[in-house]
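FAQ: What does a ligand-bound record look like?

Like this one, built around coenzyme A:
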Amino acid sequence: MTFFVRTAGTRDLEAVSLLLGETWHATYDGIYGLERVSEIVRSWHSVEALRPRVTRLNTEFLVADDGTRLGGMAFAAFEAERKLVVLHQLYVHPDYQRQGIGRELLAEVEDGFPGAERVRIEVEEANTGAIAFYVASGFEPAGKSEACGGDTRFAIPAAIYEKRMIWTG
Ligand SMILES: CC(C)(COP(=O)(O)OP(=O)(O)OC[C@H]1O[C@@H](n2cnc3c(N)ncnc32)[C@H](O)[C@@H]1OP(=O)(O)O)[C@@H](O)C(=O)NCCC(=O)NCCS
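The answer part, i.e. the structure of the complex:
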């Protein structure tokens, strides 16, 4: 099957919510525990929590679609004053990891904001697979965050990684 990356719409929200729930449990149950992950998934990844993103300005909300199902998603926002792209979410379903979908979603995010100088992500330090992906993609450590995504309700500490954008032509 071949996945193509496209912009997400309202009709994708149910599938994106499901994808995020399954991928979060597969990735984080062993780190945060099932109950805490369920609470975070309900709060951050419900259809209603995702809906405003479809129309938010200066963002890229992307899905990888094979015509039948979604294999991955990304959501990034551009802070024009700081010329900074914040990649809030990049998730590939466990069934489809290590097939290049994450790399494709990231490339599309990077292309989506001409004028950006840096891309920033926050990543759980125990999530070694994700860190390996970001390092392989050109990211470098750039500090720590006390509350991932700025959400103090869950206060998840995270490592910050950044990548410098190089524009040619
Ligand atoms: C991290 C993630 C987004 C990467 O996406 P992916 O589609 O699986 O990765 P790709 O196939 O595009 O990998 C590109 C390169 O990154 C590196 N890489 C990716 N996953 C890796 C892993 N688990 N371990 C080591 N290196 C890895 C490799 O160099 C890989 O190239 P290769 O397969 O040719 O060796 C995806 O695995 C995922 O969603 N994981 C669970 C959720 C998560 O942690 N999301 C990030 C939250 S910050």
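Follow-up question: can I read anything off the structure? Yes, for example: The longest helix spans residues 13-32.
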